[in-house]
Specification:
92% of the residues lie in helices and 0% in strands. The chain has 61 residues and is mainly α.
Length: 61
């Protein structure tokens, strides 16, 4: 997985945490839910990238 993909996924996760925290702070359930959704999406992207890496490693051998 490229460094830019890792950084992008990490950035998305941080963005989600900020949204969730802000939503909690101001009592906005929708913003809080969007933040959680952003985090789940980031985790899914990260898992996909790791799966690609695993397949690439298997095919090298």
């Amino acid at each position: 997985m490229s460094t830019s993909d890792k950084a992008g996924n990490t950035g998305d996760k941080v963005k989600g945490k900020v949204k969730e925290g802000l939503g909690k702070a101001v009592g906005n359930e929708r913003l809080e839910a969007e933040g959680r959704a952003d985090q789940v999406e980031s985790d899914a992207k990260q898992a996909g990238e790791k799966a690609k890496d695993a397949v690439r490693d298997l095919l090298k051998d």
